[in-house]
Amino acid sequence: MKRSFRISILACCLFDATAAAAKDWRSGYTLYGTPGLIELPSAFVRPDAEIGVTLGGFENQQRASFNFQVTPRLSGTFRYSRFAEFSGPDTDDLYDRSFDFHYQLLTEGSLRPAVAIGLRDFLGTGLYTGEYLVASKALSPRLRATVGLGWGRLGTEGGFDNPLGVFDETLNERPPLDFGDGGTPAFDQFFRGDAAFFGGAEWRISDSLTATAEYSSDAYVREAALGVVERETPFNFGLSYAPRRDYILSAYALGGSELGLSATIVIDPKDRAARSGLEPAPQPVVLRGRSSANGLAEDTLRRATATGLLEEGVVLQSLDVAGRTVRVRFENERYRADAQALGRVARVLTKTMPSSVEVFVLEPTRAGLPLSIVSIRRSDMETLENRPNAAAQIYERAAISEARTDVSAVEVGVQASALEWGLSPYYAVQLFDGSNPLRGEYGLQADLRYALRPNLTLQGTARYRISENRSDARVSDSTLQPVRRNVALYGEAGEIGIEDLALHWYERPGRALYSRVSLGYLEKMFAGASTELLWKPVDSRVALGAELNYVVQRDYDLGFGAQDFPELDGVYDVVTGHASVYYDFENDFHGRIDVGRYLAGDWGATFALDREFANGWRVGAYATLTDVPFENFGEGSFDKGIQLTIPLDWAIGNATRDRTDVSLSSLSRDGGARLNVDGRLYETVRGGHVVALQESWGRFWR
After folding, report:
1. How many Å apart are CA 215 and CA 255, to the nearest integer?
2. I need a surface site. Which of 40, 163, 200, 355 has the fewest CB within 10 A?
3. What string of DSSP letters covers 633-687?
């Protein structure tokens, strides 16, 4: 009994050690850019929120994939593939988009394998369509195995009757694939027809080198029949090299006849690419006994404070001292997190305010709009600065309330320049054209912003085009007014064009209410007027908005004229607008629903869900469904895509509000097209409200 007991304990320790090692051993990326083996999935997932960008393939197929670990168990993949000689030798290539989902049903335990289910190419033309159920288990700290059951394309090697047919006979047959215009889920295909087993093993040779072998259930039936891909064996072998966690290089022997290569860049949006804190350190809190501001006139205090704040990248708009309280209204022009700007402003006030001032009432603004009132006691600044967990402690003692509705500001002696301009190179990209997947233009861009008042600005962008290859891009078929599909024609007529030039006026019409009026050349394709009203209480996760626009389609030369359409006997003008609901979930997710009329006159709704991180990264997806029939919409059936926001301070380490917005979507379509007006209210104001301040408050003392 004692010996048996010892063996049991030893076995449990071995299983626990194996599970721990497996947890540290991350899944690789396949040639499809998904977590898995070589071409087949495993049941493992990547770390939560991770982004993997994979370029890989072999001679006749190349794939560019974007994988996002949406939640700890769910990942989604967008893929763009090139099929060389698609219809046979010496025929044209085909470029195709596809989407995957991978969900881990069970996590790995000491004895239990991880189990996952997935859909491959469920929303596209179906060239890669397949479904799977897969299990994976670490057998030792350096060996793990995978076995799965595949359908569709993953059921073409060694296939047999569908085991799900015992539950429903209709699952035994997989109907011919008819994807039409693409872009819609092929529900009649899922888990139907023949099934086949697949599997593989991974051997961790060292911490940076992994060997993989797999038995593939994808026979490449279509490609082999056309003679463009050879498969002599269902076995694939690979070697992956990952000396660091931010990239993986792999080489493969595929089917006994092909050499495959892939490279994956791994991005953790929750971490920083650059060393944090490269911006100048904040000035220390000045204790009242050392203040030199006692006895100074209020005008002098304003000028001293304005000067100190400008050094911190903050523009003072007004300052009033009343007894033991100073009220300061300012705009943060440097820090992505408004909580960091609040901390810098409070530090400056400890230096510039008389000793009698105890309460700092801080009013952050954006576009001249007061966003909130944050009240902080000076004594708390003095006692908490160097304490452990100081950010949490001062947040507990601060008071955040609704901002005042007035937007007027007292003139301050020292101000930032009202005129801002810049000249920089640009490169505009157009992706996913059927004959050339990467088109674009480059040249010089001039930006102008003139603040007539803090809440009234004139801003615009002009471009000088040096070279482009967009003018012969494929234009999608549609019976709708060409409000988006001919975007490549804009700017073709001349080298210099006005991208946008508009006057933007912001106001506070009432408590928790914000308004915007924009007039002019609102975007590349449309000019006119845009109005917006937003209800967003400072402490609410819910916001409601309404927007109404009247616009005219601009001329192709990007000058000041309007485009004349002979079939319309004049210009194209349209009234468009939406009612919107925004919700900020408690788990980093943000949802939005827009319902209304789009630029082509169609009616419908846009659904968007983003995941946003405290460092400014945002990854999300959207879909727009309108009353335009899929056949009239054209290729893709309805508008959908993936959106990324990459904060520049994440990459360079220095404080800046600049960011890069990237949209991965189909070709520009007319259905579901919305006006691209700058400065919409929700994104303008929410950074100064309770939820955003709380999430970024850890930067208060930075």
Report:
1. 9
2. 163
3. H-TTSSEEEEEEEEEHHHHH-S----EEEEEEESS--STT-----S--HHHHHGG
Query: To which residue do tokens 């000045």 refer?
Result: 286
Q: H or E element: which one contains 87?
A: none
Cβ atoms of 114 and 159 within 8 Å: the answer is no
- 373-417 pLDDT, tens per residue? 999 999 999 999 989 999 999 999 999 999 999 887 655 655 667
Cα gap 16→27, rounded to integer Å = 19
Residue identified by tokens 């995957």 is 100
Q: What local confidence, expressed as pLDDT, does residue 185 receive?
A: 78
The CATH number covering residue 231 comes to 2.40.160.40
Which amino acid would we find at residue 92?
Answer: D
Predicted local distance difference test score (pLDDT) of residue 17:
45
| Arithmetic mean of pLDDT over the chain | 89
Q: Please, what's the b/e burial string for 382-418 (b: 16 or more CB within 10 A of its CB; e: otherwise)?
A: eebbeeeebbeebbeebebeebeeebebeebeeebee
Q: Is the pLDDT of residue 183 over 70?
A: no
4 vs 315, higher pLDDT: 315
* Same domain? 375 vs 249: no
What is the residue type of 449? R
Residue 565 lies in a domain: no
The pair of structure tokens assigned to 353 is 């305010």
Q: Which two tokens stand for residue 171?
A: 């699952």
Q: Residue 525: is its pLDDT beyond 90? A: yes
Lowest average pLDDT, out of 152-156, 158-162, 182-186, 618-622, goes to 182-186
In percent, the amount of the chain with pLDDT more than 90 equals 66
Residue 383 three-state SS:
helix
DSSP string, 522-589: -SSSEEEEEEEEEE--TT-SEEEEEEEEEEEEBPTT-SS-B--BGGGTB--EEEEEEEEEEEE-TTSE
Query: Residues 224, 229, 231, 237: is their CA dihedral positive or negative?
Result: negative
- pLDDT given for residue 293 in this prediction: 73
Grouping H, G, I as helix, E, B as strand and the rest as coil, residue 130 is strand
- How many domains is the chain built from? 2
**Backbone phi, psi, residue 36, to 5°:** 165, -150
* Structural domain containing residue 125: 2-267
Same domain for 229 and 80? yes
Residue with tokens 């300052």: 319
Q: CB under 8 Å, gap of 24 or more: what pairs does 235-240 form?
A: 236/37, 236/38, 236/39, 237/38, 237/211, 237/212, 237/213, 238/37, 238/38, 238/211, 238/212, 238/213, 238/214, 239/209, 239/210, 239/211, 239/212, 240/28, 240/209, 240/210, 240/211, 240/212
Structure tokens at 159: 């296939």
- Asked if the model's pLDDT at residue 510 lies above 70, the reply is yes
For residue 445, count other CB atoms closer than 10 A to its CB: 18
In angstroms, rounded to a whole number, what is the distance separating the alpha carbons of residues 457 and 331?
A: 14
pLDDT score for 16: 45
Is 168 part of any domain? yes
Separation of CA 274 from chain center: 19
What is the pLDDT, as a whole number, of residue 477?
Answer: 62
pLDDT value at residue 270 = 82
HSE (side-chain half, CA atoms, 13 Å) at 43: 29
